[in-house]
Amino acid sequence: MGGVTQDFPPESESPTRLSSDFITPEELVERYRGRISLRTLSNWRYANRGPKYHRLGNRILYKLDDVLEWESRQARGERG
């Protein structure tokens, strides 16, 4: 008799893990200790500057890897 099996994603791909890979604009402002504002992030998105962002419905989210990559480019003096 064959049983039904379900393949669950590994721990690294669980919904909790996936959500921790993204940060909100508020969390990004907190990351920079308030040196930039939500308005600045909004302006950067409009001008296609700053870290890459993702729009999910009416929410804006930043993938942490994209933020780290953008920070690295800024440290090297690159624009974007």
Q: How many domain modules?
A: 1
CATH fold title: Arc Repressor Mutant, subunit A
Shape-level CATH architecture: Orthogonal Bundle
Task: Count the E strands.
Answer: 3
Which features would summarize this protein structure in a list?
three-stranded antiparallel beta sheet, 80 residues, alpha+beta, single chain, Arc Repressor Mutant, subunit A, globular, 3 strands, 4 helices
How do the strands and helices of this protein lay out in sequence?
Elements: H1 15-20, E1 22-23, H2 25-31, H3 38-46, E2 54-56, E3 59-63, H4 64-75
What does this structure look like?
The chain has 80 residues and is α+β, with helices and mostly antiparallel strands. It has a single domain, classed as Arc Repressor Mutant, subunit A (Orthogonal Bundle), CATH 1.10.10. It is built from four helices and three strands, in the order αβααββα. Strands 1-3-2 form a three-stranded antiparallel β-sheet. The chain is globular, with a radius of gyration of 17 Å. Residues 3-18 have low confidence and may be disordered.
